Amino acid sequence: MKTGIPMDMRCLIVIPCLNEEKHIEPLIAKLGSALDELDARIVVADGGSTDRTRDIVKEIAAADPRILLLDNPKRLQSAAINLAIETFGRDYDYFIRIDAHGDYPSDYCQILAQEAQATGADSVVVAMRTMGFSAFQKATAVAQNSKLGNGGSKHREGAKGHWADHGHHALMRITAFRAVGGYDEAFSHNEDAELDYRLRKAGYRIWLTDKTAMTYYPRSSVPTLFRQYLGYGRGRARNILKHRSMPSVRQMLPLAVVPISVGAFLAILSWIAVVPISLWAFACVAYGFWIALGERNPYGPLAAVSAMVMHFAWSMGFWMEVFSFRARKVVS
Q1: Domain end marker among 218, 243, 270
Q2: Cβ-based neighbours of 242, under 8 Å, separated by 6 or more
Q3: Are 27 and 100 in contact (CB under 8 A)?
Q4: Sign (positive/negative) of CA torsion 249, 251, 257, 260?
Q5: Going by C-beta distance under 8 Å and a sequence separation of 6 or more, which residues neighbour residue 305?
Q6: pLDDT the model gives residue 1
Q7: What is the distance between the alpha carbons of residues 187 and 271, in angstroms, rounded to a whole number?
Q8: What is the extent of the structural domain holding 168?
């Protein structure tokens, strides 16, 4: 052992995936060193891939029995983690959640384990850095890495290591995960923030590390980005409604986007109705040009477009969930 990680600290690495034939093999290869150093097992929880993902994992597993393919009939990432912990968790101290569509340093898992050992945290979360390849992906990455797109979220921007309320899920103590009931599978999005709320309420501690981070690749088109943030908005609303909590200030601002957009139709009565939406659009575009000029980033103006798509979709998803929740209450 070269990492200083205790021999009895066993980790279960879980990769929820669906149709990831381009990424799954190199991802497993990059995690290979953790198999020895953490006495780990890798479980690929597949949600019914129709490409070659399953065949690739089976071929890898045939050569290394520490790598397993697990069927995830519910398809959701939250269900994948729950099933993996239910099936294999009793033999491990911690689990590490790996997103199949992300990229990680080769020592990612080992550093997470070291941080858990050093801090005594029940959950170690990380910052998420975004990067893209196509022009739209690069612009969206610029937006998501800026306050325009993330509202100053610590796990989006990165910060010095500190005790946190939430972050991108990475490593978690299995006893803590089980004690609060695991992920709520009613959440297709925002299940990590919802679980963090229950962890904190139960007295468990979350450490946001600055020793490592993961890289995320954003959606490559407007429709897919819109659908993603629509889901994020619905998930955040469901979280707030479930726990009767208040949204933060940085969440309240984009919440207004759909209401002011609807209000703009009142311009037939008064031109003042278009002022709020005009100010929002101007602020986004101005911030994009500030990025282009101040940071010398040519994707700044296009990043403003990505941010506007994200704001509008998030706001729409939030209000859709609120009104559907009220409709369900009226019916019941």
Answers
A1: 218
A2: 184, 194
A3: yes
A4: negative
A5: 139, 288
A6: 41
A7: 40
A8: 11-218
Q: How many CA atoms lie within 13 A of 270 on its CB side?
A: 5
Q: Are residues 193 and 273 in the same domain?
A: no
Please indicate, yes or no, whether residues 150 and 249 belong to a single structural domain of this protein.
no
What pTM does this model have? 0.85
Mean pLDDT, the chain, whole residue set: 90
Which of 245, 244, 218 has its CA nearest to residue 145? 218
Please indicate, yes or no, whether residues 30 and 124 belong to a single structural domain of this protein: yes
Q: pLDDT confidence of 156, banded at 50, 70, 90?
A: low
C-alpha dihedral sign at 135, 298, 228, 174 = positive
Domain shared by 54 and 170, yes or no = yes
Among candidate residues 189, 218, 247, the one where a domain is terminated: 218
| Same-domain status, 243 and 208 | no
Dmax over CA atoms of the chain, in Å, equals 73
**Are 172 and 297 within one domain?**
no
Q: What's the pLDDT at 182?
A: 97
pLDDT at residue number 154? 59
Q: Give the whole-angstrom CA distance, residue 117 versus residue 5.
A: 8
Exposure pattern of 127-161 as b/e (b: 16+ CB <10 Å)? bbbbbbeeebbbbbbbbbbbebbbbebbbbeeeee
- 109 lies in the same domain as 174: yes
| Rounded Cα gap, residues 194 and 177, in angstroms | 12
**Segment 199-234, tens digit of pLDDT:** 999 999 999 999 999 998 888 899 999 999 999 999
* 314 shares a domain with 238: yes
Residue 1 lies in a domain: no
Task: Tell me how crowded residue 47 is: count the other CB atoms within 10 A of its CB.
Answer: 18
The token duo for 75 is 């398809």
